[in-house]
Amino acid sequence: MKYITVSILLLISFYSSAQKDVEINRLQAIVDSTSDYNKKMAAAFDLAKQLSLLDLRRTLTLIDDALNTASKQGDSLYVARFTQVKGRAYAVSGLLDSAVFYYYKAIPFFERHGKPDDVAWLYNDLARTGRKTKDYVRAIEFYDKALQIFRTSNNAEGEATILNESGVIFEYQGNYDEALSRYQQSLDIQRVRKDPDGIGYSLAFIGVAMGKKDELKQAEAYLLEAMRIRLQRRDSFAIAFNYADLGDVYAKQKSYRKAIEAYEQALAHASRLKVPDLEMEIHLAISKMYDKVGNSARAYFHLTANNWLKDSIYNIDKMTEIEDISAKYQTARQKAQLLQQQIEINKRNNAIILAVILFGVAAVLTVSYYKRLRLKQKNKLQQAIFEQQQMAIQAVMEAEEKERSRIARDLHDGVGQMMSAVKMNLSSIESQLQFAESNQQEKFSKIVHMVDESCKEVRHVSHNMMPNVMTKTSFEEALRTFFDHLDGDKLQVHLFTDGLKDDNNKNIESVLYRVVQECVNNTIKHAGASQLDVTIIQDENAISGTIEDNGKGFDMETEGKKGGIGLMNIKRRIEFLKGEIEWNSAPGNGTCISFSVPL
Q: Under a CB-based contact definition with an 8 Å cutoff, are residues 504 and 577 in contact?
């Protein structure tokens, strides 16, 4: 389970489980009350680092407020720091594509401020995403860059961390001697530094590697020594991983009862800390151990928990999206650098030309010419930055649609096919069964009917999730098809469209289709409405729409503070398209959603 341990190793350095809620509340109080900019930003930064492991939504709200404040102050260093923490918060939640985007975005700020160690930590963050997606070549490339910077700046803590994390790559590749060499170097550095936490992690890394070499007694000894340190430090994150690693060693020793006990301790800590990656792996490991001791019921329970968690977090298929984002970022950045170099060359050439012209041209004309030239250069640079941002946003949108496609295929080809097979098998044995009573025949028929309805529901859900819903039809036809599948007895839908064109940008139409879907689903789930009116109108400059129901409505102020995921998703999609969206609702008066997206 080493890949989970090191995936949040740097973040753990920002957080100690011994810190209580009172510390978070103290920092929040400073952020809310102080008018001193430096104190406010320092407290917000410390609070963001702690919350990034606990509450993604609260972390993002805090960071966005801090970024806005820092931008108004022109403080690009704090902009860089909060951008990096934002990436880490997404990484902890398994949203690796978003994490990579913000890591790359932070690098130029740190480079301009001459902060090599901060750049090295970003390379470490990027390397961990490469490790998670099994792109080990890219991961080693970033680790080597980080290691070189830390050695140049004599940063012993950074060097020890990189030696541990890069050793994991060699461990994955079966090169345990190289991995142990790096772990030992890290342990030597941490002992010189007298850092108990660092010593604990190095001992744990060595113990796991020893276990993989089947040197199980030595592995157990190292892990127990690491556990002793971590229990003294009350480091719940590290304790959870340590128990999991001990479970692996006991499993190899065929001490299955001891392995189950260690895994159960690890699961208890992971559940309290809300680390879904670790919970998923531990459930699978416990399932195998219960299978070894013949307890099939407990084995099935933990296997089911593992599968549920697997569907709720990132998938390795995201590697392609991350590669796309990386490639597009590098290309856009190179273009921006070339443009900046050309601007510098032009500025030097123009300075020479202006020096000659000054002898024959009035000073006013010279100053006017220079200002116009600078404005033109600034516009070019801003255009390059804008294109870079648009490429990154487009990559994130494409990644989301690809993930929908994967889930839809899994539903249709996996669950759908299995449900169809169940129906066929039930139907085939119906004629072979002898029912003692007539109501047994009716109950059996109801079961077959329920399976059939489940098959239809799976096909309907997978169809709605497919991102290419409009590749074979127009936006308007896709909406009408979607509404035709709704239960007309429970909800009457009136759709009015005007001016929609067939040559619109498919990405815009796809996002708007998802917005309408989300709004309708919210109406069905929460509004208790009997009527829904949807209007979509296109003019020369924009596509506008309203979605209005006669349901029970909601309190705008209360729901706004809650920040529901559904409302956040709708708002985020419209913001991707540079559009605007408004909600108008009150208890008992229904809900009206209005949006406008520029073409």
A: no
From CA 268, how far away is CA 271, in angstroms rounded?
5
For the segment 43-60, what is each residue's pLDDT rounded down to a tens digit? 988 888 888 777 888 889
- Amino acid (one-letter) located at 144: D
Can you list the alpha helix ranges (DSSP code H) found in 93-115?
96-112
- Find out whether 238 and 246 touch, Cβ atoms under 8 Å: no
From first CA to last CA, the distance across the chain in angstroms is 48
CA distance 51 to 45: 10
Cα–Cα distance between 308 and 510 in angstroms, integer? 28
Separation between Cα atoms, residue 467 and residue 443, nearest integer Å: 39
Q: Is the pLDDT of residue 12 over 60?
A: no
Strand ordering across the sheet containing 580-585: 492-498, 531-538, 542-549, 591-598, 580-585
Does residue 414 or residue 539 have the better pLDDT? 539
DSSP 8-state code for residue 547 = E
Question: What CA–CA distance (Å, rounded) separates 267 from 259?
Answer: 12
- Pick from 479, 483, 504: nearest CA to 492: 483
3-state secondary structure string across 252-298: HCCCHHHHHHHHHHHHHHHHHHCCHHHHHHHHHHHHHHHHHCCCHHH
